[in-house]
Amino acid sequence: MTPRTTPRASRTPAVLFDLDGTLVDSEPHYYEAGRLTLERYGVTGFTWEQHSRFIGIGTRETLETLRAEYGIDAPVDELLAVKNRHYLELVTTSATAFPQMRAFVERLHTAGHPLAVASGSSRAAIEAALEATGLGSLLAVRVSAEEVGRGKPEPDVFLEAARLLGAAPAECVVVEDSAPGVEAAHRAGMRCIAVPYVTDGQTPDGDTGEGGAAFASAGLVFAGGQREFDAQIAYDWVAQSN
Q1: Mind listing the GO molecular function terms for this protein (predicted)?
Q2: 200 catalytically annotated
């Protein structure tokens, strides 16, 4: 399947990467960490399908919703600490980077593009995942949703990453796997490469088409997700106006 593309402006961009499901195959870890956390507070039977609606949403926002839905008395900060502890135990031993994403990051780094990670995960989770996958030395600038006012789909993490890189929003390309992340890039005034998180042929919202309306604002869409993503195609799209 040929990725859908639309014209882009002539800029030399910085590239801002989402982490979970984009750079690192960590969604299964987040699901398991969330399941274990809910189980600790008496909520059993939490399924992948229930988890998938939170893909792309920050950890705090996710736990705030789950706490309300299941009537959990514990404060959100306590739930966050428990989930982070479970996640860190999993990610430090078994996190892996998607091979073509690793190749893309390495190519961009070699070519001198400013790079950053902008994620809804905690700072500790970002650090652990990058260390475990060996990507840390290539992605020194990191922004967590903990460090800004609002998580995705608000643009705050991307705008802060651009600020730290000294790049204007129009000079940035975001790489994202989720609809909230693509929307955040759009609200930030940044171009976007979308690599939807696909399981069993569907994105989390059940879409099976060309990326779906949720990804329409992205300039380059690999509708088949990571199995379709091609580092060379993505690099050529980013670098074509350099």
Answers
A1: hydrolase activity
A2: no
